[in-house]
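FAQ

Q: What does a record look like?
A: Structure on top, sequence underneath. For example:
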């Protein structure tokens, strides 16, 4: 594929964003991971000759996404997390998009997160005399995650 990515080419991204209702509420410089998991269940099956232990797909765990960025003045991410802290589950659970962008600003991947909410918001440690950037990371839990486009 001339000038673009082929199906087997690895993706690279320089920026990640969370978008709710078409509005970007937060932009991140690091995706620490997307985790999806299905717990196996065991099934014992016996025949005339032997007992066979099978492992089958069981309960799906909620997907988790961990993103990190330099802390900024934006309040949108905190407001979303505050809805969770206040027990306002209806306001906290949002369907949103995680979009990954290349260095030229073009999207390279998009994921749809259904009924997502920020389960953890962490502000990094910082010394007053240090010349470091204050960091913020968020863990988002989602009932369902789906890759929707490149």
């Amino acid at each position: 594929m001339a000038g673009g990515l082929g199906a087997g080419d690895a993706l690279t991204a320089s920026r990640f964003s969370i978008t709710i209702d078409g509005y970007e509420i937060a932009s991140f410089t690091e995706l620490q991971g997307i985790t999806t998991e299905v717990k196996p269940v065991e099934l014992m099956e016996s025949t005339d000759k032997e007992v066979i232990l099978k492992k089958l797909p069981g309960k799906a765990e909620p997907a988790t996404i961990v993103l990190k960025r330099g802390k900024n003045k934006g309040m949108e991410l905190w407001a979303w997390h505050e809805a969770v802290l206040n027990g306002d589950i209806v306001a906290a659970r949002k369907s949103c998009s995680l979009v990954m962008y290349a260095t030229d600003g073009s999207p390279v991947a998009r994921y749809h997160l259904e009924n997502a909410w920020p389960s953890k918001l962490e502000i990094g440690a910082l010394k007053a005399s240090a010349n470091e950037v204050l960091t913020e990371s968020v863990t988002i839990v989602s009932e369902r995650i789906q890759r929707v486009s490149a």
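Q: Is there anything notable about this one?
A: The chain has one domain: 15-149.
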